Amino acid sequence: MNKEDITVMVADASHEKYVDTILDTIEKAAKVRGTGIAKRTHEYVATKMREAKAVIALYGDEFVGFSYIETWGNKQYVTTSGLIVDPKFRGLGVAKRIKDLTFTLARTRWPHAKIFSLTSGAAVMAMNTQLGYHPVTFADLTDDEAFWRGCEGCINVDVLKRTGRKYCICTGMLYDPEEHLPAKLPEEVLERLKKLKN
User: Fold this and answer.
1) CA 173 from chain center: how many Å?
2) pLDDT of residue 94
3) How far is CA 9 from CA 89, 105, 130, 151, in A?
4) Whole-prediction pTM value?
5) Taken in order 51, 7, 42, 27, is the CA torsion positive or negative?
6) Which long-range contacts (CB under 8 A, 24 or more apart) does 58-61 make?
7) Domain 3-195 class, CATH top level
8) Cα separation of 99 and 124, whole Å?
9) What's the pLDDT at 182?
């Protein structure tokens, strides 16, 4: 296998056939790590694909990796979430490629929104740092209740609740767009985004 043969792209409706594989891969990875993960439904992930709010990596027709974005607090905040790479394809730099494209997609669609990430993984923290994220307290993140309800499916939600949503196992990281230059997406993706409502 040649890592250059792995394609990383903005997902669309044609990728919905991979949703169950994505959800299964995310669940298995969370069990192996013994960490929490926000549970997502088939329809939730499929909608992200249809709305051009997801990035998928494929090796031919084989699933390699995935991530999605979501807006919160009247689009003042964006999260990049659900980053996963199938164990068979780890160590090839795919997660970084997915993270970079997901970040670029978020920056292009909502250039003035703050982008944040909750993670317990050192690799994701390193990628976030390279992109310009900084560790922050949870008070610096969105106060949108819909976002925090997503933590209900996490095995560590008791920590979040006990601390009054100030701390948890995850590290909060924030990217402030006012500190950085605009990002660029391929022209065909920009054309597709123009047809969709933000």
Assistant:
1) 13
2) 96
3) 16, 10, 21, 27
4) 0.84
5) negative
6) 58/6, 58/7, 58/9, 59/1, 59/5, 59/6, 59/7, 59/89, 60/5
7) alpha beta
8) 9
9) 63
Q: Which long-range contacts (CB under 8 A, 24 or more apart) does 36-40 make?
A: 36/120, 36/151, 36/153, 36/154, 36/155, 36/156, 36/157, 36/169, 36/170, 37/153, 37/154, 38/81, 38/82, 38/150, 38/151, 38/153, 38/154, 39/153, 40/82
- Rounded to an integer, the average pLDDT of 95-99 is 95
| The amino acid at 3 | K
CA distance 191 to 100: 20
User: At how many degrees (to 10) do helices 94-109 and 122-131 cross?
Assistant: 50
pLDDT in tens, 46-79: 999 999 999 999 999 999 999 999 999 889 999 9
* Closest by Cα among 51, 80, 61, 79 to 21: 61
- DSSP letter assigned to residue 179: G
Indicate the burial class of 111 (C-beta count within 10 angstroms; 0-12, 13-18, 19 or more): exposed
Domain ranges of the chain: 3-195
Round to whole Å and give the CA distance between 75 and 188. 23
Sequence-separated (6 or more) residues with CB below 8 Å from residue 32: none
3-class state of residue 62 by DSSP: strand
- Residue 17: both structure tokens together: 């056939």
Question: Does residue 107 contact residue 115 with C-beta atoms inside 8 Å?
Answer: yes
Decide if pLDDT at 135 tops 90: yes
